[in-house]
Design brief:
Length: about 300
């Protein structure tokens, strides 16, 4: 409004300036109480908002990581589901086929022995203890995945005492790429502690003593007894179970039934390597989803009705 005034009185601007200054001086003391309170209140309200805003900004990354982990879990579990379906079908089929003759059993294992006289397990280990740990970790996991995880784990701890000292949290960190890694980490540390308390830090060459350890079942005990101590046990894993049922070699509804069937049928001279031959055959030839029957060296003996062709 001042710029639109046409008053020519030269004293007017000075009076207005003086008036404005007096108003500002008198208003100033009243302003801080009025403005300070809102600022303080606003600050108290804004501060919590800034704290809660941070997680909301991080939420997409957190959700994205969770989604990625869930997708990886689904992808990793797909082969397990396929094997379970294939094994169920094989077990159903196994009950319907004619039993192998003793001559056929000998012929089959003669062929396996001729092709691979000294089959080896595929879990990396340096002694009975690291073998035991690796087999415990292999549940619901591939040997390749276990070997990647144990590379760092065994560099940090390769004895029972070192594993106990490493602790459950650090063991879990090394094996976090494996399924059920938290439970497995606990089992590894606990079995290491029991080996120190009960067996002087040594892995016992006894099935009952092995199965008394956390995370050790019959299959794990059989693997350790066979590989570490040269005892001719037969460890029935998912691959061997499928092969025994699909071929009709030793049908069974459970791993124990398959194991006892093979024990009764396989001649002693083949027993030390029998489970290796059958596991490797199931892993690379008699696969769950699509068996490679043209590459099978016992295809003519196999009772499977759904053989694949070239």
């Amino acid at each position: 409004m001042a710029r639109k005034t046409t008053n020519t009185n030269t004293d007017a601007p000075a009076r207005r300036i003086t008036a404005a200054r007096s108003v500002s001086k008198t208003a100033a003391p009243k302003m801080p109480p009025k403005t300070a309170a809102p600022k303080t209140a606003a600050a108290s309200k804004i501060a919590p908002a800034s704290k809660t805003a941070s997680p909301s900004r991080k939420a997409p990354a957190s959700k994205g990581a969770a989604a990625r982990l869930a997708a990886e879990a689904v992808e990793a579990s797909a082969p397990v589901r396929r094997r379970a379906v294939a094994n169920a079908a094989a077990a159903e089929h196994g009950r319907t086929v004619a039993a192998w003759s003793a001559a056929e059993v000998v012929e089959a294992f003669t062929r396996f022995a001729r092709r691979d006289p000294e089959p080896q397990g595929e879990l990396d280990h340096s002694d009975a203890y690291t073998l035991l740990v690796a087999v415990v970790l292999s549940a619901q996991a591939t040997d390749v995945g276990v070997n990647k995880a144990t590379r760092g784990l065994f560099a940090a701890a390769s004895t029972p005492s070192a594993m106990v000292a490493l602790g459950e949290e650090e063991v879990a960190r090394h094996i976090r790429t494996l399924g059920l890694y938290k439970g497995k980490a606990k089992n590894v540390v606990d079995l290491s502690r029991l080996l120190l308390e009960r067996h002087g830090g040594q892995v016992p060459a006894d099935r009952a003593a092995l199965e008394a350890l956390p995370g050790v079942g019959r299959k794990t005990a059989n693997v350790v007894l066979n590989i570490a101590f040269g005892i001719p046990t037969i460890a029935v894993d998912t691959h061997l179970f499928r092969v025994a049922n699909r071929t009709g070699l030793a049908p069974g509804a459970t791993p124990l039934e398959v194991e006892t069937g093979l024990e009764a049928k396989i001649p002693d001279r083949f027993k030390l390597h029998a489970h290796h031959w059958l596991i490797l055959h199931g892993r690379y030839v008699c696969k769950a989803r699509l068996p490679d029957c043209p590459a099978c060296i016992i295809s003519d003996l196999c009772r499977w009705s759904g053989k694949t062709t070239l």
